[in-house]
Every structure is written in C-alpha cells, then in structure tokens.
Write a structure and sequence with these properties.
It is a single chain. With about 400 residues, this protein is an alpha+beta fold. The protein has three domains: about 1-35 and about 180-295, no CATH class; about 50-175, Jelly Rolls (Sandwich), CATH 2.60.120; about 300-405. About 30% of the residues lie in helices and about 25% in strands. The chain has helices at about 5-10, 15-35, 175-185, 210-240, 245-250, 255-285, 300-315, 330-340; strands at about 50-55, 60-70, 75-80, 85-90, 95-100, 105-115, 120-125, 135, 145-155, 165-170, 320-325, 345-350, 365-370, 375, 380-385, 390-400, 400-405. The protein has a seven-stranded mixed β-sheet, covered by helices on one side. Strands 2, 3, 4, 6, 7 and 9 form a six-stranded antiparallel β-sheet that branches. Strands 1-10-5-8 form a four-stranded antiparallel β-sheet. Helix 2 (about 15-35) packs across helix 4 (about 210-240). The protein is extended.
Length: about 400
Amino acid sequence: MNLLNALVIPPHPMLSAAFALILSAMLCLAGGYLSAPSQPSSKPAPISAPLEIPSSRIRLIAHQPNAISRGSESLDARVFSSKQVSIDTELFPYVELAIEGGYPGLITHFFWRNSLAPSITHRITLPSYTDRPQFKALYNHPQWRGQAVEVGAIIIGKIQQRPIRLKHITLEPHSGTNHLRAILAEWLDHDDWTLRSINYYKPEKTTPLVPLNLAFASWTLCALIVFAGLTFLPAKARQANPSRRSRTANSTPYYVIVAIFVTNWVLLDGFWETEASARLSRLQATGSNHTTESHPSNTRDSDIIAYARHLRLNALPDQPTRILILHSPQTHYHALKLKYHLLPHITIRGDTSDSSILHENYEYVIVTGGLDAVEFHRDKGTLTLSNARTVHVELIHASPLAFTFRIQRP
C-alpha cells in the first residue's frame, strides 16, 4: 500500500487513537526533556559527569535521641555531613542520596551551606524513603546558589540503634534525563496521612516541577490534536478521490474521542490509587497496634485528646451525661474535637456570645480557651455568660486548654 492509499483509506479509528496516544506521549516526554534547565553559558565547558561524595567522605556529626516531638511520638535525628567542600551549584542542579539500613517512614532532608552566607544552613525535603536512591531537583530552590561549602543529610525517624548510614551523595549535572527523573520522583512521592483527620489533607510541600494533573491534561489535549490530524487529513484526500469514499469515512468517531479521555483518566487514577496504596502501607507500618489513646497524633490535637481522656477517666461519670461546650470563634476547632473525643457523652456546642445557651439542663459546662467571655466567681460558685445568664457551678478541672465546671442545682 503506497502513501496515497494510506491517506485515502483510513485506518480503524481505535488504531488511530492508540497511535495518537503513543505519539502524543512521546511528544510530551520530548517536551519535558527539552524543558530541562541548561548550564549557564558563562561556564567554560558543559559538565556531563556527576559529582559523587562517597561514604568514606561522609561523617556522622550528630545523633540526637528524642530530638523531635510529633504528637505523642518522639523521633530521633542523625546528621551526616561532607564537611568542607567546594561545589559550583550552577553546574549541579540535582541531587541523589542513597541510605543504607533505612525503613519506610524515614524523613530525609538534604542540607547545604553556601559561600554567600556560610553561617546559614538551608535544607530541602527529599522524597519519601524507599529502597531506591532518593532524587530531587535543587535548581528551583532560591538558596541553591553560589559555591556550596558543605552538604549533608538529616535523617529523622525512630532510629534508636539502627545501623543507618549514607551510602553516597551524588550531585547530578544538567540533562534532560535527570530532569525527567526529578519529575517522576515528585509524581511517585506521597505524603503520609497526618492522622489528624480522615478529612484533612496536608498540601504539597513545594510547588512541583510539573503538576501531575497538568501533565495528563496536556497529554490528552495533544492526543486529541494528533487524532484530529489523523482523521481529517485523510478526509481531505478522500475528497480528491471520491471513489475511495466509505461508510467509515463519513462517520464521526465520537466514541474514540471518549475512549482517549477515559484511557488517560484511568491512567491518572492509577497514579492516585498508587498514592493511596503507598500511604496506607506506610500507615500500617507506623500506626498499627495502637489504641485510641496511644495512637500518634498531630501536635495540634494531642493536647485535646489528652484533655478529653483525662475528663472521661477522672471527672465525668461512666454513664453518658449532658455537657455544654462553650467556645469563641478562635476555639471553635477545639470544641469540635472535644465533642468527638468525649463520646458517648451528649455534648452541645454553643458560642459564648449566645447568652441563652447556658441553663441548668446540663450536667457539666466546658469553656474552651480562657474565661474572658464569661464571669466566674469562685467564692460565690457562679458562672455568668454575657452578663445575662447565671448558673451555680463547681470548678472541677482547669487547664490552658479549657475549664470544666459541674453545674450545682439548688
């Protein structure tokens, strides 16, 4: 079949769609490859070889047990340093770091000091630990400038006596391949759940090199353009040769356009499912075998959880009782969390600006934050809200987080 017949006799629409997807993927990869930052023209010659700092030149300069508190957890920190080096940051915009003896859940930071401000340490968070080396772009960090006089890594986790060490730190030169590696490493890096709430998601640490959704949208658009070219260019040729017209040529393959969208959506969803699976695996590795009280929690919530637990065990009756939680706009979040962690007690939330909410139908009153919005007279045993409603109470617990009162009936 010659070229003219190939243009006149259209291939099956699904074959055209498959070809469009493959060709557009190659075009997008080429675009990512060519978009890599180039070495500054002021440099004398392009650098193609990586700069490796082997383990023999890396020293453990600090090991700090329980250095960092994350909710109810205490994490250790190890600091590895190359000591004195001289690295032109403009020549090496990427870093690869390999850890030996690590485990899922480790937090790794690459740090450096530059000649512009030698007393200041800068750092960037590397992708989540895996058995593969961690790879990260540095050129988009505003402080990766000048001459680096020291580089190293900070490893944070439940290290204890684990034999964790750095195998090497490798600074990679400008190349399209390294740029694609950095993009892929970002796409495959997944933040852990914070354990604050199933409805809470921490945003991205930094602005990604290429957002995953944008990449798939570009691929889909490019595939549609290529498919349109494969569909309508043969139509032009068929107009010049009417004897080659066919029923397939006159039909508009809308289902193929839908198939292109669905294919890319399924592949994008595959990335999302991979992220969910990876986060779940790390959650099972680090958060299993915990009770409600001992489960690691975000620092913002751990004091609320501890306060609610103290009330349940030491101040409140075993049977469900009616509790009023008074809050201001600033402590609305605390009231919500207290309401949840005080279950199965019957809790009602009320704003301190609503004087009608306070009455004797409750057994207990919890005032979150301070007592600025209420008046409590310890000698009289009264609690007054907005200079209107007064009830007789007994203070049973006080803390910076909240004040708990038991209502006294005459």
